[in-house]
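Today's session is about reading a structure prediction critically. Students often jump straight to the picture, but the first step is always the sequence itself: look for stretches that repeat, for charged clusters, for runs of hydrophobic residues. Only then move on to the predicted structure, which in these notes is written as discrete structure tokens rather than atom positions. Here is the chain we will use throughout the hour.
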Amino acid sequence: MKKILIIGAGAMGSAFSVPCASNNNEVTLIGTFLENELIAKIKSNNNFHPSLNINLPSKINIQNFDNLKNVTKGIDIIVVAVSSVGIDWVGDEISKFYNEQTPIIVLTKGLSINNDQLITLSEKLELILKKNGHKEINISSVKGPCLASGLANKMRTDTIIANKNVKEAQKIQKIIQTKYYKCEISDDISGVEFSSAIKNLYSMLIGGSQGLSNPSAPEEIQEKFYLNTAASLIHRSISEMVEIVSYYSGREETVYGLAGLGDLYVSVSGGRNSKMGKLLGKGYLYKEAKEQFMKDITVEGAQLALDIGPKLTSNFDKKKFPLLFSILECICENKKLQIVW
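Below is the predicted structure for this chain, in token form.
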């Protein structure tokens, strides 16, 4: 049995606590400083999580952020499950109690820019810890096609654990893997993180395939016959993803695995990126769609586009990456989503 601390009580962090607890670990789920109200609701209602619509196991220790300093002693694994914009904050907080070489698992998907270079969130977290005086840092990235609600309900789920040191990934695998939650192993942490982040851009694009299939056709015809277009967009999306991930030193086979193609499928089939994409495909401008239909909802792909879009467009050729530029111009410049086929 290991002591696992999960920081971030949103849907994914809370769902991840379920297999950790199933494997007889001592699990503490702690909210960020923005989640005190959420934590209070969960604890006052028999561990019922409103986003997951399920009661979390009673043996999970659920705490608000004010109690962080009281639950860090003897921690064997730290899990980062905050939003991408919270990585700086969580890095500084972990620095206050981090013991050298304690395994850190990063669930968060996204990328960042440091010194005009595009880096993974694991790299960013490592830089923060080093800045705060830590030298020996052990970070793994867990990514893949995992919808939080499915995992919380113990649906069969496969993910991938990436660490530069495969043996470290294997140690984590033994601690968190269950009959319903399985983990592959990889040392391609760059490929895994870039694939899982970039796919959010393309899932928005594929989500718009209905409206992009034939803009002049009636909506009822688009709804019935858009799958040909969706298939074309999936094929072209994967082709571009392979080139992008390879450019950033990731391996091609990683894109075709759980962190790339697998995660893309889940995101397109049902998620916030796909929902935004459908609106964009219907002709809404991004700002209009966000304000009218998804005002208080974080759309990871759109946030990623705004964060790193200019960097991507400066690194790649528009003629070779027409899909990438289509979605970036749509989000970053608030233009109508159009594809130069």
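Discussion point for the tutorial: DSSP finds 16 helices and twelve strands in the chain.
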